[in-house]
Structures
1.
Amino acid sequence: MKILYLIPTLFLALSLQAQEIRTLTLKDALTYALDNKADAKKSKLSIENSEYQIQEVRSAALPQITASGSLYYNPILQTTVIDGDYFGAPGTIIEAAFGQKWTSGAGVSLNQKLFDQSVFMGLKAAKTTREFYQINNQLTEEQVIERVAKNYYQVYVLRQKLTLVENNLATTTKIRDIVKGQYDNGLAKKIDLDRMTVNLSNISTQKQQLINAVKLQENALKFYIGMPIETEISIPETDFEVSLAALTASPDITNRNEYLMLKKQEELLVLQKKSVMASYFPTLSLSASYSYIGQGPELPWGAKSEDDVYWSDYSSIGLNLSIPIFSGFGTKAKVRQADIQLKSLQEDIKDTQLALDLDYKNASTQIKNSLITIENQKENMRLAEEILSNTNNNYLQGLASLTDLLDAENASTEAQNNYTAAILDYKLAEIQLIKSKGELKTLIN
């Protein structure tokens, strides 16, 4: 029985062991996200849907053809009272039943709009809507790229910190072993050994916390790229290039998708206003119909005149003109509302221009400050490592205390973590700078 219980566990372990680890570069992660993330897929579906919206509006300008059929049975015919004067019987009232017990008809009708300003405006709006969704797709892809890139760098930095802690753990373990050897030989105090043991335990706890943090950040990254959470991923070791990015006076924000979307919304609101104003214009349409009707005392289908069932046809062709005269000022109110919406959006456009310009200025400043911080932290890290090496040698020779050694070790660890954090700050600032220039898609090239 115990063996039977162990079999599923064994298979699970073997399947996890055999699971392929997927290597993800930044470009791989971005490409995967654009192909699989729900946001990117939905924005592409919106473009496809806009084509059907255009077809729907276009249908209003095409002929509308309708076929109809009917079958009626009249168990009681309506009686009409007629003055007998019409039938040469003055002073009398004649009751007559008109119609037949059975009536069946079939016909086809056509309606074609010849002039309708609202239809023409609708066609222009539908095409502009398609362009709006195309810009929205570009903006959505940029948002996906920005989000994924930030999470990718955060995973990388956490892994770097984990590697650093593992190295510190190995170094501290060696020092603890040396102190233990000294203690066993009566050359060190028990408090020194206890302090090293506590320090080692703290580093082990940090390592476990970082392992958990890396896993959580990896899961977040997989979510943001639309990858199954159970997939194992590996981020290759890469030396991030840190150099002053190309800075210009100010990029052309009119090429930013955020700005282009607002301008396209402005076009739509203008068309919406014109569509409302189309109510002031007359409409003209052509209509035509042809019908065939059969009447008699029995079911007309298949019957002829010999059965007292008679079939006849009729048709009509007409022009329909509608001229609006007074709508109770309703149309005027709608036009004013459209004006207000348009003016409000124009204020949003002005504010967005300022915000996009601010984004670039702030990103440029952050890039410069991050480079200065990186250089400072790099020098601090070099000095801390040199101090740690010298203190370690002095401790082994009895020229430095354990407190000095632990302080030097902590200072070295802090300097390395600060350098790693500075690299992350730079990469995040770099993403913001690339975004502010409207060049996020260069990350997948």
2.
Amino acid sequence: MNLLIAPDSYKDALSAGQAAQAIADGLRRALPQADLVICPMGDGGEGSLDALLEATGAERRRHEVQDALGRPTLANWGWNTADRTAYVELAEASGLQALAPQERTALHTSTHGVGELIRAALDVGAQRLLLLLGGSATNDAGTGMLVALGAQLLDEEGIPLPPGGGELERLHTLDLSGLDPRLLELRVQVAVDVDNPLTGSRGASAVFGPQKGASDSDVARLDAALATFADHVNQALGQDYRRTPGTGAAGGMGFTALALLQAELRPGIQLIMEHVGFEKLLKTSDLVITGEGRLDAQSLAGKTPVGIARAAKCFGTPVVVLAGSLDQGWQAVYPEGVTAAFALADRLMKLEQALPRCAELLADRAESIGRLVQVKLPK
């Protein structure tokens, strides 16, 4: 029997690789003779870089960049020499988890560090870039990245704007003439796990700004500021992308990648499956076990377990989801190709009790799945 183990990370508990190993440990208790294939996955959010590196064997590199508040930090990125592809995860440079709660300020955080990582990739000859969005602390529409790559954002007096999305309300001149010319030859794909537009009631500021420290008044200011930036981009290009699904990803980074890097926006799970050769693995698998921290109706928007289930459905391969919790509307995943779904908890427990036990609970549930697989029901 061939079992494919392909979980996402379990936030604040296990990386995708650690989760996969825990599932494998449990399966081996019940099915010691089974062939286990481990393929950690992600949907473009935090931890997707680690999953890609483990699955593809790409080289992990580190580069000193600015974090979301302009402080020096070491950020990881991936380099696949064989096809000259760089993997850049926004959260490595500009991630929310790197900031203490009191440091989170959506008005002032910047994606400058992401641009520094892209420049490092260009310096080694990158021809393709997979930009992984998710887990951002920023709401600057990727303008910090643009500045790091050579653009200038100037106020009415010709003075460069300070970092942060809130400053875009004072944008008077968008000067793209200094953008790194190597970007013209770079094929950019962007992994997004949301379909929100840049602005409006479902835009980056309104939906994601509060979790990044934005008050109600900050949200209104940021939404107007991003609209001002979009106006300037529209004037420069003659095309308005602000309503395109996915442009609100990572505080509007999706917008700038699409409009100014000529990027292709794709659901993250689809892109990552392509890069790791997931379809080939599915063809030889009898069962797929996946999972992540929570399964609910929102998982249908492009989260890892549902993306995997949709792909597996094409091959008639059953999929079992092991989730930290099953929340409202989780049953909607069944028509998407999920065969069965299970929560990890073995008794009533609080989140702070469950997190340290995540590996243990995953292994136990996986063992139960393995034992069930062995059962031969009477005809």
